[in-house]
Amino acid sequence: MKGSIVRLTSSCDGVSEIFSEIDKLMHSLYPSELNILLSVDEVDQSNSELCGIYIEGELAACGAVIFKQEENAKYGEFKRIYVKPQFRGLGLSKRILSHLISLVTERGLNKIMLETGVKQYEAIALYRYFGFYERDSYGAYKPDPESMFMQLYVADKPILAQT
């Protein structure tokens, strides 16, 4: 039941469905104007990479990194990190995050940023487990009490083994 991490495109089986599931969850937790969601079409752009894990033919988990530049610094931004409820507790989110971190470091980058909602307690705990810490808003994001902005400098940070 382990499943390998694979690169995904917008046309891969289950991608549209899992994105719809994420959208539905985000819209149930936060006002629509606060949801800055990566569209399914954006994952095919040259500055992004979407990966996922299929279990028994079903896309069970996914995560994306968008490679960006802000002023003079290049960084990776994590988006769409999600595990379907029936597959939670299997360590899939840790495997996805470890893989995304390795994609950032393979490009020679050291900085990762993300935005998450303050009601997503499990996600926040996961990010802190990996060493992410809070920061001010960045890029197109505006400060908002419903959002938490986090970053990680990956130099000298061990990447967890992909189990």
Low-pLDDT residue spans: none
What's the N-to-C terminus distance? Answer: 12 Å
Number of strands: 7
Number of helices: 3
Overall 3D form? globular
In which range does the helix fraction lie? 10-25%
Cα-atom Rg, whole angstroms? 15 Å
- Report the major sheet: 7 strands, mixed
The string of secondary-structure elements, in order, is EHEEEHEHEE
Tell me the strand order in the biggest sheet: 1-2-3-4-5-7-6
Name the average pLDDT. Answer: 86
Name the structural class.
alpha+beta
Could you tell me the strand content as a percent range?
25-35%
Write the layout of secondary structure elements.
Layout: E1 5-8, H1 15-29, E2 48-55, E3 58-70, E4 73-83, H2 92-106, E5 111-117, H3 121-129, E6 133-135, E7 147-153
Parallel strand pairs: 4-5
Antiparallel strand pairs: 1-2, 2-3, 3-4, 5-7, 6-7
